[in-house]
Design goal:
Blueprint (H helix, E strand, L loop, with lengths): L8 H12 L2 H8 L3 H15 L4 E2 L6 E2 L1 H28 L4 E7 L1 H17 L3 E7 L2 H9 L5 E6 L11 E9 L1 E5 L12 E2 H4 L3 E5 L4 H12 L5 E6 L2 H10 L3 E5 H6 L3 E3 L1 E2 L5 E8 L6 H24 L1
Parallel strand pairs: 3-4, 3-5, 8-13, 9-10
Antiparallel strand pairs: 1-2, 5-14, 6-14, 7-11, 7-12
């Protein structure tokens, strides 16, 4: 669609007459009859209750009112043209915004996904918010964010609002992580649930899904965990683990990234899913659609890396 097609016809005609200086030449340029052109201008002048053109001379001139109106009309035309170009920019992903919610865990696990997306679509502004999982689900439901990435229990036993759709990107195993200075830094055998209960732990606080997974495991196995430090910062916990004789529970991928020592549990904690959350219905921006598609491709590569190291 040409921009002229969405601009009011009477204003198109007024602009053409002002530029051509005559009804005849304007009609030829617009490929319309002169009576049609005259009728449109007459109707516009009647609507505005003011003459816009001075027809008394050899050439048609704008009146003072016509000059003022045409100046505003050109400005409006420019705004419409800018809007059309902005839509084009959004559609071809040269511009736009993606509002993404994630947890401290998915921040670490999917940061490379954001790097890939930014590399492919540098014009898209990515606005990330680190939130508890429940807040992410509510924010997606209420369209305050476009998409969320959460670290959750298998979908079959997870209750979510019905308007949310989900795509599982990959599954992660949870394990005990310790630093090189920890007494168990060279342990290869599995750690029992009872031995976990004897460790001094640094854990995320109770706002976060990972903590609820740890608490569920301890409750199931009748363990009273010895929690030395609680934090809402995963970076702080990792730093503590590296420098203090503390243990924590993390996905294996993060433990490998941070070069911490992995100790598997016996029995294992239930595996967790890294899941994309979005609204099933309603408008989805091109940036949201592109991110979802890229996430699926990225997760296949990530799954291969996880499988190789497990």
């Amino acid at each position: 669609m040409q921009q002229r097609d969405i601009f009011p016809r009477s204003l198109q005609y007024l602009v053409a007459i002002a530029e051509c200086g005559s009804y005849t030449r304007a009609a030829e340029a617009l490929h319309v009859s002169q009576p049609t052109l005259s009728q449109q201008i007459k109707q516009l002048e009647e609507t505005l209750q003011s003459p816009l053109l001075d027809r008394s001379g050899r050439s048609v001139q704008l009146t003072n009112a016509g000059e003022i109106y045409l100046r505003h009309a050109r400005r409006a035309w420019g705004e419409l043209d800018g809007g059309a170009r902005a839509i084009h920019d959004v559609q071809n992903l040269s511009r736009g915004t993606l509002r993404l919610g994630w947890t401290p865990i998915t921040d670490y696990l999917t940061c490379s996904l954001l790097e890939n997306f930014n590399g492919l679509y540098p014009g898209i502004n990515i606005n990330t918010l680190e939130l508890p999982q429940d807040s992410i689900e509510a924010s997606v439901s209420e369209s305050r964010i476009d998409i969320g990435i959460v670290f959750s229990k298998p979908l079959a036993i997870t209750t979510r609002p019905s308007e949310l759709g989900t795509d599982v990107l990959f599954v992660e195993k949870l394990c005990v992580a310790v630093g090189r200075n920890h007494p168990r830094a060279k342990q290869q055998e599995r750690m029992s649930a009872q031995n976990l209960g004897q460790e001094s732990l640094a854990l995320l606080n109770t706002d976060f899904a990972l903590r609820s997974h740890v608490d569920d495991y301890c409750y199931l196995h009748n363990i009273e965990p010895r929690i030395a430090i609680e934090s809402n910062s995963l970076s702080a916990i990792i730093s503590l683990i590296k420098h203090r004789p503390l243990a924590t529970i993390l996905p294996r991928s993060i433990v490998r990234q941070q070069r911490l020592h992995i100790i598997n549990l016996s029995p294992e904690m239930q595996h967790k899913e890294i899941t994309l959350i979005y609204r099933k219905d309603g408008y989805k921006s091109p940036a949201t659609i592109a991110f979802s598609k890229l996430a699926q491709l990225w997760s296949k590569d990530e799954l291969q890396n996880i499988t190789k190291t497990q």
